[in-house]
Amino acid sequence: MKTICAASVMVFCITQPVYAETCREHFIRIFAPVDKSPTAVRTYNTATTNGANEQKFNLFSIGNDHVLSQALVPVAPWSLIHNKKMFISNDEGKSWIKVRDLPDNTTAEAALAAKATALAKIGNEECGTDTYEGIEADTVQADLDTTPEAPFKTTIKFWMDKKNGDMLKSTTNVKMPGSNYFATQIVEQAPDLVLPTPE
After folding, report:
1. pTM of the predicted model, to two decimals?
2. Could you point out which of 61, 102, 113, 166 has its C-alpha 20 to 30 Å from the C-alpha of 135?
3. Strands of 179-189's sheet, edge to edge?
């Protein structure tokens, strides 16, 4: 069995049996998993535009319904999703202010709809092997929209622990005329993760 974390605005993981599959099927299984059982992870994210304007934030989550975002660069209020409510903190998590109630599964459904649309257009799949922090990894990448009318090109690459299938790292590269956005996400499994629970 392999546990897989899909990288997106929010992170979720799945456990599935290993079977013979094409590189395209492998990418789809990671990018848009069928089983969305809540799994606790910590992710450490950096992003740049044209090699500058660096952004850094941490995203700690237990499934899609309990998520803490820590804005580091530039400094900004932290945010928290819990119990279908959104909160912000201006003191790095010492206290929380409720911002609003969240409609049921609105965020998750929007993300799923976007992914379902993208799946029909992916291409240029590549699978291989690599080493990340001394760990042997399987790699899989693809372009999300290969249609001629696509306004930009998005390439996503995953590094998966060869031993247990856990995601180790992902990168997202969005290219458009005059702009090149590149983001890196480092993923850690976090079975001991405890998040704030304001009411």
Report:
1. 0.81
2. 61
3. 97-101, 85-89, 78-82, 66-73, 52-62, 40-49, 179-189, 167-176, 153-161, 135-143, 123-132
